[in-house]
Amino acid sequence: MAIDKIQSESINLADTFAFTGTVTGAGGANTPAFHASLSANTDISDATDTKLQCNTELYDTDNAYDNSSNYRFTPQTAGKYLIYGSMTATESADTDMRNVSLMVHKNGSRVEYFGINFRNSFTRIVEINGSTIVDMNGSSDYVELYVFADTETNSPTIIGGTNQKCFFGAYKIIT
Question: Is the pLDDT of residue 8 over 60?
Answer without folding.
Answer: no
